[in-house]
Amino acid sequence: MSEELVNAIADMKEAEALRLAKEMVEGGSDPMEILGSAREAMGIVGQRYEEGSYFLPELILSGVMLNQIADMVKPQLAHAAEEEERHGKILIGTVEGDIHDIGKDIVVFMLDVNGFEVLDLGIDVPADKFVEAIKDFEPQVVGLSGFLTLAFDSMKDTVEAIKNAGLRDKVKIMIGGGQISDEIKKYTGADAYGKDAMAGVSLAKQWVGAK
Ligand code: B12
Predict the structure, then answer these.
(1) Is the pTM of this model over 0.85?
(2) Distance between CA 109 and CA 103 in Å, rounded?
(3) What is the DSSP string of 105-121?
(4) Ligand 1: which atom is nearest the Cα of residue 200?
(5) How does DSSP assign 38-75, residue by residue?
(6) Does 62 sit in the ligand 1 pocket, CB within 6 Å?
(7) Which of 47, 51, 59, 112 maximizes ligand 1 atoms within 8 Å of its Cβ, making it the mutation to test the pocket?
(8) How far apart are alpha carbons 200 and 73 in whole angstroms?
(9) Which residues pair with 94 in a beta bridge?
(10) How high is the pLDDT of residue 209?
(11) Four-residue CA torsion sign, 199, 34, 75, 45
């Protein structure tokens, strides 16, 4: 981890954070390590927001910084995926009532570079939209993302709606996002919880039988 980069993001020094990230990319640093530093910084921002020393503008700026840094490292990660045969289909979205998509977008990107065909429904996605998309797109795996506590119920409702539509045995469901845990997995009725994008990739590979 680059402590300098973690601190620059956490302290809202946008120009410095982008300069450091650019230097790291150009210097050949591991893209996953750069993303790891950005992620660590988001944790600090969240803590400061909780303690009341940061407010919404800081949350927004941290999101903007993370997106810009993710865009810088994506080309490094993308090489691996070119020319590869697709393993299977994955439907993903941030559940109803929740608009956090930075973490989801990283998951989408990692699934894509690891050879999956991904349909991303975006943010604030109602349960019936997931159901319709399962019928049309016919994925083997559904990924539900959410960062708010209220997302737990939206995830539960979505799993329920998939079940009621008679589609539950056609898909494996994984969930993830800031506050998601194994407990929440049990509560929602999903098949698995993935703590980060790579965990999502491993689950998907396991379920579609890809190496
Ligand atoms: C950035 C941010 C925002 C940005 C979001 C920008 C965007 N485009 O996403 C903005 C400013 C819009 C925002 C708004 C709000 N936010 Co906010 N936000 C955050 C913050 C700081 C970072 C979240 C983030 O992007 N992290 C970075 C990513 C990379 O995180 P990650 O967890 O490492 O991601 C990995 C895993 O989660 C996993 N993953 C994610 N999805 C999935 C899916 C699957 C299938 C799998 C397998 C894995 C997986 O893979 C990811 C990549 O490795 C968090 C604090 C925190 N520490 O989480 C608060 C936080 C989530 N927000 C919070 C709040 C309260 C809000 C608001 C309600 C504030 C307000 N008063 O309006 C609104 C909510 C609006 C809404 N309806 O959704 C609270 C939630 C509290 C709660 N208990 O519900 C938090 C925890 C802050 C806090 N500590 O209080 N927020």
Answers:
(1) yes
(2) 10
(3) HHHHHHHHHTT-EEEE-
(4) 47
(5) HHHHHHHHHHHHHHTSS-HHHHHHHHHHHHHHHHHHHH
(6) yes
(7) 59
(8) 19
(9) 145
(10) 82
(11) positive
